[in-house]
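As the work plan foresaw, our protein records have gained a structure token line. A representative record is set out beneath this paragraph:
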Amino acid sequence: MKRKSVYKALSTLAVLLAIFAGCTKESSDVRLSPALSTAQVLNIKSDSATVVGFVVASGSGFTEKGVCYSLETGPDISDTKVPYTTPGTRTATFNVRIGGLQYATKYYARAYATGASSTIYGEEVSFTTLPVVPTLTTADITAVTGNSAAGGGNVTVTGGADVTARGVCFGTSHNPTVSGSKTSDGQGTGAFTSALTNLLGNTLYYVRAYATNSAGTGYGPEVSFTTLVDLPKLTTAAVTGITKISAITGGNVTYDGGGTITARGLAWGSSSNPTIENNVIDGGMGTGEFVSNIEGLSKNTVYHVRAYATNSAGTVYGNDIQFTTLGDNLTWNIPGGYVSASYPGSTYADWSPGSSPQVKSVITSPDNLEGYVYMANASNEWKFATQNDWSGPNYGVGSTPGVLDPTGGNIVSPAGYYKINANASTMTYTAVATVWGVIGDASPQGWNDETPLTYSPSLRAWTGSVHLTAASFKFRANHNWDFNYGSTAGNATLDAGGSNIAVTVESDYAFTLDLSQPNAYTYTANRWGVIGDATPGGWGSDQNMTWDAANHVFTVTLDLIAGAFKFRANDDWAVNYGGTDLNNLTQGGDNIPVTVAGNYTLTFDPWSHVATVTKN
């Protein structure tokens, strides 16, 4: 009952009590007319509710009181009634529980009280019982495989509210619920089908259909089924240890499908997705990892390999992995009349194939030869020699530029530091003169252009000093990104087009770019300082040196005391020079002594390892 109905009943009682209190003694036997109120409805459920009645005035008294109700308005005691039967209660308020109601149904109710001559009623109230969970059945399971099945259900009764979700729930324990694995198969009443997927092979499952409305979730009867043995699951391991004729790989059987793995191993061949009808290597039985060697391969050949596993359901394969066996790397000599002048102090000689610079291929690309050759003369003649002597074949240039000709004449090039490439398959070559420098946001010209280095014939390397900030750099030639090297590994090795090289400390750096060994290019970038007990920092910290561009040395001026010092790179002992002969310092050499305290200027050439110590 609404709150205003309670207030109305209470106010009526108050008025009557006031009238009664005002009566004289002579009128004390006057009785009020009987009056009744239906106060409110409590505890509404799907099948019951409690209606509260209130006796405003009992008149001559009641023989019975209670609540009557109906599906229609205006219920009276000729409809269904529930008398108030609680004994020993003298309060005006009485609560009557009505049971056996239909769910989700609207009812009308009134309190009643019957006296000697008539029955009176309180105000009419209405209420609607709550819905119940839906009623449904679970369909039989069909189309069972090793990892799937078909099921479903039929929502026959909504429970008095909209069915907002339905499907089947399933699991390996009895009475699965929607908190576990389930399908979602629409809304509303009627039959529906469900696809159960991602099941385990050879496994007993329990299934119940479910349907959900605002009252909750109802479930159908439980059914069960057992999946068939499923196909195994596995992966193919990465291929390692590749040689010209062999490789190492394997697999990992991660799931047996509910059956027994009776065979596993590798299938390989020259075509993609090889099967056990091709070449097979036995890898044993059961789940887990296995490793196998593939042998008897041909060099420089593309192969495919897949792991396989077999149980009673069949054979499945892991991912296809392609690899290429290694090939023979080639070495060609570059003899010519330029050699002696270009490589002073070496054992190289003019027109001697075995005593000449070389170009080489790598085993992963055996037909492509590469190397850098310095030619110092204004005009230089040279050829390609495939042997260490002139037994051939030997190649020069014919009528078509850039094409190798076994009967061709000498190739003529002006002075320069040449990047030479040759292809033994297409029989072509290029020779491009290069000038190298340092480029990057750490360098003076940023990424716009390289700061040049200088080629040193005696070192067979590009050298120079560049001031770098804390950023990154690469090596580039000819103002062209076709020629650039970085360091993917982040060490002293270089790769064509490799990653930028990081700089963490701003300083003047001494560079050495060594391209003299074909396909094995390296660099150093060192900042220099002095350290020792003769220096202000002692043996604990370096005193930084700066680049003297006029004299091409690193220099520092500072106060020294009697003691010793060394030249050290990058604040680290990995690279340090010392010794008693300042014109020939050596890596890891003895400490350099200082016998007299004073102000000194120290210089160091990091390429010739020559130093000066001058007292000012």
Notes: The mean pLDDT is 93.
